[in-house]
């Protein structure tokens, strides 16, 4: 049963109820130690640090999880943005869904070309053939040399200079624990801290107290086995759905989810450092809701920027919703500059929706114009990050003046 009082609690009370339900993730102490050392280093060097969250959170249906509900996100927004922040001198804590896209390796990991397609075997050298071996060195193919060299150099630079910390999560509760700890650890950074919350976070979850321990069964078990397996499942969550036309012993699964407490409130008002900048994303599929929902989020949590995007068009248009003028500003990649190398299932969704005209109103395009990029196939993050950094600069400057 959902606690009827949860909806009436203050954000701080809802937070403690939520965090008391779950054991912290096993990796949390290790992640905290890594983050503490990383943050201290950059505090000493007076460097800005951005926490980029990326990828979708899962909602497990069982404690020993076989099935889970997932949130859509490939991690492209987060991984691409992280690279751009690094280029602008930020240190990046990359809190990401395990196995989603990562900065730099994203260029090779989930593309239509497997990384092996980027490689070739060079002919054996005269020495190796004279010694009877036909093994030549493995090389990057000629056509990929330049791009891979450039990615490799940036990757090496970030690694060798301790600019990038990768921390994985899987479930929504792991995400919450990690976010809370990281935000609190970032306090010594003050206005040098930036939160860029691009992860697609589930709004719903199953409280631990109502979660089945073991794999939920789809057929009736003999009576002597029933209790051990379904011990923690409420009768309203899973029940026998007798199909009149086709009698069977198969069960229907009815999932009953609670709302996840609004963590943004707590992040802004409690966990994050004083003077830091908080940027959240709002994802919608209905174009008529996007601006309204993004603005409502900004008003509700009183943070600094909501970046709105539609699932179908997120790769080439976003809207900045700010508390100050111009309040609403669209950034768009011009049609001729949209990446031609679109691949993967998630993009097929986007293309199909865009063909249906499921995009922001045309008059908006005219009113706001288009921010231009300089070469073919630009990624929208290369428009988002510079605009965002300008806003962060202003905040840091203001803070400096008032200090
Ligand atoms: C986003 O809107 C991200 O831009 C995307 C990026 C998930 C669409 P991809 O990873 O996609 O490049 O494939 N994130 C949504 C963040 C979110 O869940 N926000 C919550 C909400 O919309 C509030 S914090 O309610």
Characterization of this structure:
With 403 residues, this protein is α/β, with parallel strands linked by helices. The protein is built from 13 helices and 16 strands. It has a single domain, classed as 3-Layer(aba) Sandwich (Rossmann fold). The strands form five sheets. Strands 7-4-1-8-13-14-15-16 form an eight-stranded mixed beta sheet, with helices on both faces. It has a two-stranded antiparallel ribbon with strand order 2-3. The chain has a two-stranded antiparallel ribbon with strand order 5-6. The longest helix is centred in the last third of the chain and has 22 residues. The structure holds ligand 9Z3. The site of ligand 9Z3 has 17 residues, from helix 3 and strand 13. InterPro entries: CoaB-like_sf (IPR035929). One of its GO terms (molecular function) is phosphopantothenate--cysteine ligase activity.
């Amino acid at each position: 049963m959902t606690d009827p009082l949860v909806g009436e609690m203050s954000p701080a009370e809802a937070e403690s109820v939520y965090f008391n339900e779950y054991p912290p993730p096993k990796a949390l102490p290790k992640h905290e130690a890594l983050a503490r050392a990383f943050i201290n280093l950059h505090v000493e060097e007076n460097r800005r640090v951005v926490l980029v969250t990326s990828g979708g959170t899962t909602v497990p249906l069982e404690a020993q999880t076989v099935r889970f509900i997932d949130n859509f996100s490939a991690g492209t927004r987060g991984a691409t943005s992280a690279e751009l922040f690094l280029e602008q001198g930020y240190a990046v804590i990359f809190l990401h869904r395990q196995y989603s896209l990562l900065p730099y390796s994203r260029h090779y990991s989930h593309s239509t070309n497997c990384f092996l397609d980027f490689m070739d075997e060079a002919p054996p050298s005269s020495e190796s053939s004279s010694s009877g071996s036909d093994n030549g060195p493995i090389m990057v193919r000629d056509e990929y040399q330049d791009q891979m060299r450039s990615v490799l150099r940036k990757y090496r630079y970030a690694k060798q200079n301790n600019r990038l910390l990768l921390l994985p999560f899987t479930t929504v509760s792991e995400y919450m624990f990690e976010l809370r700890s990281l935000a609190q650890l970032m306090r010594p950074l003050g206005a040098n801290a930036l939160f860029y919350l691009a992860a697609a976070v589930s709004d719903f979850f199953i409280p631990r107290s109502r979660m089945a321990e073991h794999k939920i069964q789809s057929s009736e078990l003999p009576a002597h086995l029933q209790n051990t397996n379904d011990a923690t499942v409420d009768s309203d969550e899973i029940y026998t759905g007798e199909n009149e036309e086709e009698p069977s012993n198969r069960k229907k699964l009815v999932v009953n989810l609670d709302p996840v407490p609004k963590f943004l409130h707590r992040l802004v008002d409690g966990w994050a450092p004083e003077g830091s900048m908080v940027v959240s994303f709002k994802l919608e599929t209905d174009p008529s809701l996007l601006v309204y929902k993004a603005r409502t989020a900004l008003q509700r949590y009183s943070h600094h920027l909501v970046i709105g995007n539609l699932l179908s068009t997120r790769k080439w248009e976003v809207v900045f919703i700010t508390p100050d003028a111009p309040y609403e500003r669209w950034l768009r990649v011009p049609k001729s500059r949209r990446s031609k190398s679109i691949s993967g299932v998630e993009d097929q969704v986007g293309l199909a929706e865009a063909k249906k005209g499921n995009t922001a109103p045309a008059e908006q395009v005219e009113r706001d114009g288009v921010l231009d990029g300089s070469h073919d196939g630009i990624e929208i993050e290369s428009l988002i990050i510079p605009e965002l950094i300008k806003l962060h600069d202003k905040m840091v400057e203001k803070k400096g003046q008032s200090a």
